[in-house]
Design goal:
Layout lengths: L5 E5 L6 H12 L3 E3 H9 L3 H8 L1 H17 L5 E3 L8 H7 L4 E7 L2 H8 L12 H19 L2 E4 L5 H11 L5
Parallel strand pairs: 1-3, 1-4, 2-3, 4-5
This protein binds shikimate-3-phosphate.
Amino acid sequence: MSPARHLVLVGMMGAGKTTVGRQVAARLQRPFFDSDEAIEARTGRTVAQIFATDGEPAFRALETEVLAEMLDDPEPAVIAAAGGVVLDAGNRERLRAPSVQVVWLRADPAELARRVAGSTHRPLIDHDPEATLVRLAAERDPLYREVAAMVVDVGGVAVSEVVEQVLCGVGVRS
Ligand code: S3P
């Protein structure tokens, strides 16, 4: 993969997209964007508030809008795309464009459940996070696979090691 394109991290909630993305962006000296943060900055509301007041379809429409804008920016960036972006066929098509390289940060639902335990800002996480994540993973794993040029298994792996693996995968020596 060439480093001179947008690098997009995808994967489930708790996979570490934002944490890893920030560090990868710093190493590549590129701007970093996070789709949830962009939505919150644009609307002045949290993701949880948008889900609660406008519903998930309205949130997904905003998600599609900000992803398209980030990918349309000609300056190569590192983008942490929220877990649900792959649900939309148009988003998946954009992510498969030659100007985009996608890395899937993958972990088992049990590990993801431990990571998101106690999180109050994720509206899809309910009283049984692991069961929810198993269900979401069954639906989404084929979609992450469809868009990703590279998969990094993050289960039990230190963030610094995940960062190195992503950088190696995009052609930057560590
Ligand atoms: C979601 C993931 C969240 C956030 C919202 C829905 C999902 O972002 O967009 O809670 O559908 O997977 P992160 O993947 O950054 O946690």
